[in-house]
Each structure stands twice: as structure tokens, then as C-alpha cells.
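FAQ
Q: What does a multi-component entry look like?
A: The components come first, one per line:
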Amino acid sequence: MSGNQDQRTNRVSSFVLLVVFLTLALSLVALIFGATVLAGYFNIGSDLTSAYILLALGILGIALSAYVVVEARRRLLKLKVAVSPVMTTLECRKCGVKNVREFQRGDYIFKETGPCQKCNDKMLITAIYKEVKEKEKERFPV
Amino acid sequence: MGVQVKVAQLFNTSDWTWVLNVAFYAVFVGFIFYGQRIQMYVMLNEVGGSLFRLKYIKEEGRKIAVETVKEIGKPQADPTDKIDRFLEYFTIGPQNLDPAGVVWKLEHILDVRDTRLKDEVKLMAPASDETQVNNLENTLEAASALNFIYKIVRHYYLLGKKTKNLYVIMQIQMILPLVMREAEAYASALKAFAYGQPIGDGAGALVAAKLMHGYETRKVDKDCVVATVPYEGRTAFVIKAEGPGGNVGKPGDAIKAVIEENEGKIAMVIMIDAALKLEGEELGEVAEGVGAAIGGPGVDQYKIEDSLVKYHIPINAVIIKEDVGDAVSPLRKEEFDATDKALERVKQVVVEKTKEGDKVIIAGIGNTIGIGQ
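Then the predicted structure of the entire assembly, as C-alpha cells:
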């Protein structure tokens, strides 16, 4: 994949940003108008319902814009497949020393590797696995 | 003051009431006539989002494949074109209008395919050894699977758009969650294959490796190893695919060869394999049953059953349960721990179902990537 494509998939699209910006601007205008009408209610007795509608529209617009931005960001994060670290366990068959380290290319189960730090005997890879942190288990009555 | 009045007039409630009424009826009538079309656009949008993600995963897969070939194979020329060609390879299954002999035809086609893919890998990665060739082949096959999934989903998406037919797009939308799970599984498999890490499918092979470790092994056809392991007065012939490269071997041929070597005097065959779990079952659950525990296209299962019937040998199976994603992604701790439980169960079966002096075959089935012997 080219660098340009990488960048394209890693950012929020400019169209979405434009829509969000416009919605935000309109929401701000609605809020200002709402505040103006509300002030008019106290000064000249104008209709209070109009003020409420405008204020509600303004708040709704801002909430929608925030939701769209958060969703777009979440969608980008969801694109990547999460990979858990894979660990290698080395054991010394002579003295029983156990080491756990991150997997390195070339490791395989039952491979003899470098000397044991304690007794200088060869270490053996006895396990390679990944530990996945489970999301909180959903509760089903089963 | 003037602005306040004008804005207030704009929002006269009596005007708005009839506007809202008209809008309500318009939406109601609109849904009556265009409900299905709206539903189709919602589905298309959903499939489009997943397609975008699939494209990203597929491109990542291709990138990993190219980088791995360059890193391990040290080719003189850029292997990208060859890899792109590899990703488009296809296999045509045998004609089964007359099913007699279809297993052998299928086996022949699979052999040709395997040889062809290995030759291609050797060409694009000349510096790689046998283990690395196997791992690269697996990596490229995973990338190829991702490419195929992407193309199928794109086909239905574009066909749905072109025909504007709800039922065309519905077909893919309904199975999309399962397709995405499989694609994610292949995406994590790619890295496992590229680095040579053991995968969930290798759980059966790992049980056999634990049994045969420390004993002398010899090669048997095809790409398998067998070790003669004494256990509680019995003789166990433990079979697995030859590791640590990504390889499933041909356990059917290996079991058949060991049975023939012993002139059919085998008291029992036990097969250990990873099996798909149902939702709600625990990952790494070990279960026991009878029958040939082996997946794949069916050629090996056929050969094993054929040999067993010839000499009336009973067959037992021990399975380790995991879901499709775990089967092709790096081995999880739960699966690793389950191999010890499966090993104990195998030993228990041997003691309970055979007597001293008997010969048994214990075959660990699965991809032996990252697992030695």
C-alpha cells in the first residue's frame, strides 16, 4: 500500500469534516438567535416557544457534530486488527529456571536456544502463546 | 429589538404546526413507496463500510506478504508483481458427475497446486530454506484468502448497486458479520505465518509433539514424522506433520504407511485435532469421541477410514475446541493449556481401551507451524 493510501485511511474524510463544520456553524447561529429571542421575551414579550426551538436546535446540532466526529474516529480505530503480543517461554531442563520473553523470529516449540544463566546448560523453548485480555464477559442466562 | 421581533415571527407556532403535519404525512407516504429502497441504501451503506475495512485489511496483508518475502527470501528483483500474480491463483475442483474416483482426482489436483505454489515461492524467495518456504507459502495463501474475500464482497456490493435489487445486497449483508470475522482471523494469521508462530490449528500437532519429544523420529510420507514411544507397556506410534515450518503433511498417507508396516496389527488409532467450537462453549474445551478427527478437503480422512476398515481397527478422537478466528491466529494460552489436558485424555484412552503389548497409533493433526518435535 502506498504512503498516500496509508494517510487516506488514517484520517477523517474532508467531506465529513466540512459537514461537521457547517452543522457546527449553523448550530451556533441557532444558539445565538435563541438567546436573542429569549432576551426579547423579557424586553418585548416575544414568543418563548421560538426561543426554546432555536436553543434545542443549536444544542442538537452541536451534539450531532460531536457524535459524527467521535464515530468517524472510532471507525478509523476499528480498521486496524488488534494483535496481542506473543510470548515465548524458555526452560532449563537441568535446573528448572524459567524465562518468559517476547517472541522472536525463528523461535519454535522444542527449539534449543542459548545457555541457561544459572547452570550454563541449553535452554528449551517449551511454550509459545499469546495472552488475550478478554472483554468483560456478556451475561447470558445459559 | 427589531431583530428579536423578526426572529420571533419566523417561529410562529401556528405556522409550524401545519408544516410539521405535512412533513409527517410526506414521510409516511414516502416510506410506503420508497421503504424498500431506503432499506437497500442502508444495507448498501453498511456493506460499503465493511468493504472499506476489508480493503484496508487486504492491502495490509499484501504489504506484510511483500515485506516478508523481501526480508526472508532476499530476491534480487522486486517480487511485488509475482506476489500479485500469486494472490490471483485459483484451483478448479474435479468434476464429480461420476463420483467414482473423485478423491484421487482431488488429491492429484491438490498435489499439483501445492507443488506449483512451492515452486513459485522458491522463485520469489531464493534465499529461503525449506521451513521458510512453507511459512512463506502459508503467508501468501492467507493474503490470497483476504484478496478473495474482498473481491466476493465487492462483487455483491457493486451488483447490488448496479441492479438496485434489495435481495442481491441482502445476501451479503446477512452473512457480513461472519465474513468479517473470517477476514480478521486471516489478518492475524498473516503475521503468525510471517513470523512462524504456532497457530490454534496446531493444537493437535502440539499434543503429538509433546508425546514424541525426546524420542527418535523418522520421516514418513508425506511431510510427516513418526516416533515410537513406549507407554504403560504399549507401543505408541506418534505421528505429526514435520515442523517447525507451516505444514499439515498428509496424515492419511502416514497412518496408512504405519498400519501397513505393522501388517494391520494395530489395536487402536487415536486422532487429536482442533475443532470448531459452538458459541457458548469454552475455548480450549477438550472432548472425546470416535471417528477420524481431521479437516481439509477430505482426501486424508478417506484414506484413513479406508485403511481402518481394511484391518477393522477402532478409531478414537480427542478434540480441542476453538473458534474459526483462534484456529488461524497465534496459539492462545487457553489452547496451549488445553493441549496438556488433551494429552492426559489420550493417555487415559490408551490405558483404558488397550492392553499391555498392544500397538497404537496417535496422530496429532493440524498445521505444525512454530512447533518442532
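Q: Is there any commentary attached?
A: Sometimes. For this entry: The mean pLDDT of chain B is 90.
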